[in-house]
Amino acid sequence: MFCLRKLNCCSKCLKSSQIIVRTLQVSNRKKYVKPQRESTQHGTRAHLQVLGSGAPSQPASVYLHCVDKRYLFNCGEGIGRMSQLVGLSLAKISHAFFTQSKWGCIGGVTSVMFSTVASTGFPPTFNGPNNLQKIFQRMSFLSVIGGIFKHRFTDQLFKNERFEDNKIVIEPVELKHLKDTAIIYVCKLKACPGRFSLKKSLQKNVPAHLVANLFRGEDVTLEDGSVVTKADVMNQDWPDLYFIVVDIPNKGFLKELAINAKLKSQLEKIKATGVEVIVHFTPSKVFNTMRYQDFIERVNPKRNLIVNDSNKDDSVKSVHMLQTRLNKIDPKIHPLLSTKLDINPRIFDPSDESSDKYGKIPMLYSKYILRGEPKEDVELETSSDEESSDFEEILKDLNESPKDALPLCTQEVPIKLKDEKFPRILFLGTGAADSYALRNSSGTLVHLTPDHSILLDCGTATCSQINRYYGDEAPEIYRRLKAVYVSHMHLDHHIGLPELFRWRAIHLPTDRQPLRIFCPLDDLKSWLLFYANHVDPIHFDMKFIDNDILIKDQLNLHERLYLNIESMRTCPTDHYRKSYALALEFSYRNGTDMGRFKLAYSGDIGSSDEFVKLGQNSDLLIHEGTFQSELKDYADRHRHSTIAMALEQSRKMQSKHTILTHFSSRYHIIPYIEGELDANTGIAFDYMEVTPDDFPRLSSLYAKYKENFPSAAEQLERKTFNYLSKSEWE
């Protein structure tokens, strides 16, 4: 390594040399293996929390909370958003277990890695099929953000063997069919002594000043001379408890399920104790077969927890409540969601006899309590599985919704694909990369005709958004969709593509036309070909077109006719290497009314004269407004736009109408805008659908949004005041 003292050059060279030295120091640093830490808490509570039920609108995932330890079984795409909506922290997960290496089981792993790395500096350990390490390491190179993972992956993080700590033992049973692998997890919660009971100490008339002595395990003598021992005030001891996690992907595995020697051995060992519950990730078409039912009878569990596609209703109450409130403001622009809300989620509690009325009937329980304590003793346990955040404050407005809001979430919704007008623009995701809860990551669906649609960016859980919005009509949307445009390689703009291919395979015939993918060719093609070779064979279902050829409008005539467009042009932007903005021109027809439409889409962008020229005189500009106008330094640092910058771009472009989107997580419901919006400008929400007839009234809605969400507006005012005060002080 060279010495900087010998360099006699300008300050710019000195700075470059310092960067090189620092890079060499980091690269020579010894790899650090995260030490295993034993728990210091000795509670008894343990429960399974369903993060996603496996319904079309959400992933299938189960979270095991055991005192201060957190374990995760599968994490499909969109798990980050689901965890926020149910108030659980992914950052606390220490171990993740995967039943398969398919996207439906691993698609949300980036959210888990981001959360745990941000909190502890390291991802959790991963347990599953042998090819997980190769897949996850490849995912770490998907964008520059993913680079924070690549030096943290070590061989110790990936395991396919028996797992044991001081709370649980998890034995994997590997099943194979052809080249595919599925893993069953036989889990044992270790026996533990009962906890101190406050109720029993009160029944023994122990005075308050002596209760602490009993809690520490000391015997106490009362005023009447009687002695109260530790054993007198303890709850019952808890024996070993077993549960099994099963995911049989297809009928080809059923023979192996019946004859697998290791599985038979494990079931024989626990036969005397019995199995408390089986968690079924197994899809319904396999679950309902005779062979699988024979397996359930052989295990003979007390209950069956179903986490698969047989669940149809949605469980995300806050999303439905927000949409209901917006629907009251403007029912045309904010239609109700077609997927019904499950307003009576079932919780199994062994201390509540009424929760056991279903017995062995296969059932979705939102929460399954494996071990509990009497309610008066729960407060003695200090750990909590709830995420400490301001999310409850954020949802204050939603919790004050009218009493008729819940019935609206469960009623039959009118058909959305009837008497349509074109073009139609549906916003599926209006949040930035750090947004999960009430705003999904980037995705905008543009309906050109009844048979042609184009998706602008495809962030995480885009397909969940489609399924939740359209319900039973979703298959028609996948049939219409002809192309996806990816503006750049940040995860929040393309990581939803594998899930899109999965739903196309479910709903479309095998002889379907491949999906056109307009993208930064080298990077995205490399990732999707890796995915096709190692996860799901989708080679035949994709056709790549480089965004660079669109710079000079060189899309061939055959593709234009197939997509039903007249022009598709891009220009490079400086947000990230190979990032682009788009201008799309096409003709539309509504009965006898015909016209031409120009749509400009910014993607992620700062100020750009090239984009102003490209989108000149557009009918609609969809522009990112990640930050409020006062945070221009943040915007410049991350090469994003403030709302003021977006409005300035709109004026220079002479766009007829503008819709702002891609808001930072600072703005959970509404963004902060000082003063009035321009008369031709509106703000986007998830599930907002607009046609040209709606554009003129969009600007007037912002005042109504502020009026209907006063807590959110007050919170933004407070945050802005604090930020400006801090800036002035500095």
Structural account:
- With 730 residues, the chain is α/β, with parallel strands linked by helices.
- The protein has three domains: 46-191 and 238-380, Metallo-beta-lactamase, Chain A, CATH 3.60.15; 198-233, no CATH class; 421-462 and 552-729, Metallo-beta-lactamase, Chain A (4-Layer Sandwich), CATH 3.60.15.10.
- The chain contains 26 helices and 29 strands.
- The strands form five sheets. The protein has an eight-stranded mixed beta sheet. The chain has a seven-stranded mixed beta sheet with strand order 22-21-20-19-18-17-29.
- Strand 24 (579-590) and strand 25 (593-601) form a beta hairpin.
- The chain is globular.
The helix-and-strand class reads alpha/beta
Question: What oligomeric state is this?
Answer: single chain
Number of strands: 29
What gross morphology would you assign? globular
State which percent range the strand residues make up.
Answer: 15-25%
Low-confidence stretches: 1-41, 378-384
The rounded Rg comes to 28 Å
CATH class of the largest domain: Alpha Beta
Proportion in helices: 25-40%
Count of alpha and pi helical runs: 26
Work out the count of structural domains: 3
Average pLDDT: 86
What is the secondary structure topology, with strand pairs?
Elements: H1 11-27, E1 46-53, E2 60-66, E3 69-73, H2 79-86, E4 95-97, H3 103-106, H4 109-120, E5 125-127, H5 132-139, H6 147-150, E6 158-159, E7 163-164, E8 168-177, E9 180-189, H7 198-203, H8 208-215, E10 220-221, E11 227-228, E12 241-246, H9 254-259, H10 261-269, E13 277-280, H11 284-287, H12 290-299, E14 303-306, H13 317-329, E15 347-348, E16 367-371, H14 391-394, H15 396-399, H16 405-410, E17 424-429, E18 443-449, E19 452-458, H17 462-470, H18 474-480, E20 481-485, H19 497-507, E21 515-519, H20 521-534, E22 542-546, H21 557-563, E23 567-573, E24 579-590, E25 593-601, H22 609-614, E26 620-624, H23 632-638, H24 643-653, E27 658-661, E28 681-683, E29 688-690, H25 701-708, H26 710-729
Parallel strand pairs: 3-4, 4-5, 5-6, 12-13, 13-14, 15-16, 19-20, 20-21, 21-22, 25-26, 26-27, 27-28
Antiparallel strand pairs: 1-2, 1-16, 2-3, 7-8, 8-9, 9-12, 10-11, 17-18, 17-29, 18-19, 23-24, 24-25
